[in-house]
Amino acid sequence: MSHPASIPRLEIIGLAQGGEGIARLDGQAWFVPFAYPGDTVSAQPAARHRSWGRALPTLVHRPSPHRQPFIGGADAPKQAYLWGCFDYAGQSAWKPRLAAETLRRLGGILIEPDFIPAPESLRLGWRDRCTFHPDPQGRPAYYLWHTHRAEPVRRCPLAGPHVNRALENLAETGISGPVTVTAHPETGETLIWCADKDRQRLADRLPYPVNSPRNGQPAARFMMDGVPVVNGAFCQSSLLLNRILRDAVSRAVGDAQTILDCYCGNGNLTLDLARRAAVTGFDICPSAVEAARSVSAGDYRVGSEPDMARALDSTDFDAVVLDPPRTGARQLASALAGCRARRIVWASCDAATLARDLRTVLAGGWNLVACTVIDLFPYTPHAEMLCVLERPS
Known about the structure:
Blueprint: E1 7-11, E2 14-15, E3 21-25, E4 28-32, E5 40-48, E6 52-62, H1 88-107, E7 114-116, E8 129-134, E9 140-143, E10 150-152, H2 161-173, E11 179-183, E12 190-194, H3 196-205, E13 210-211, E14 221-224, E15 227-230, H4 242-253, E16 258-262, E17 278-283, H5 286-295, E18 299-302, H6 305-314, E19 319-322, H7 333-338, E20 343-348, H8 351-362, E21 367-374, E22 384-390
């Protein structure tokens, strides 16, 4: 289908789930990235379908009240930060609204989530884990939005000072594949994870421990708030904002004495709880499970979703805690629906897969008694959601 050469004026009336602006013109919806509610823009169509299109803004005629100067200045590629010009007041208004709409549309769930904003001191510089990709000259870079075009970044405005210091080191050494930097926000301990082909060269040139998937060495780690952060294993992008999530989970679990932790990873959500309750955890990442086991009295095991489902079916836990990957817990939803726990405490970074899986569990007779959007990812469209489910008394 042919595209118009340009669209002279689009009024942005809302935001889509992925964070793009939404406009309507002649009965058709247009998704406009890097535009915010209240903007009026000219735009260049990039794709068009029967009922919707996508257009890239070329000129802002009237800025949104929530539009601000780009957070990265000249140090970072503007098109790598979808909400890089969206002020925090606008983000705070829209994140719970988008979550509520996704739960309604995909899960048939009507609820107005609570919202916990990021502290003002952590709305920039919050990232303690970043992945950089090489540009054609081998400089550490970010992919531009919806592309695999890498543009170099000198300093990331969302990253903490220790990550940005490692970024400077990587710019000097050069990279030939993706490199993940994880840094302790308080001590500065820094871990580097890279491709096998780059490990020896980076290990020789960087003042940090370097691991890769098949290098045969134990993965380096550091401790943060009593939790082992393991090189190459999942951890939250912000180890300081993670404290908000851990506190919320602890409150939601309440006085449960037996807890099943599904997708437990390094025990992030239950290591503290294991001091006062019997915790059983499952995860498919051996290095994370071994680290959790080494610092806790909890029974952490390497196991997949079928192992979690068998545990749900065979044991009566007071509470189930889960924090699945972005793809959700589809394979576990039926087992959760039928389990005999008193409470489910469910963290998710993806509202769409959460809505899909919650629908299955709620059909099993559970009630959604609380839903909170926690802003662990300021200046991005992402947020963490924490849901609490209980059986009717």
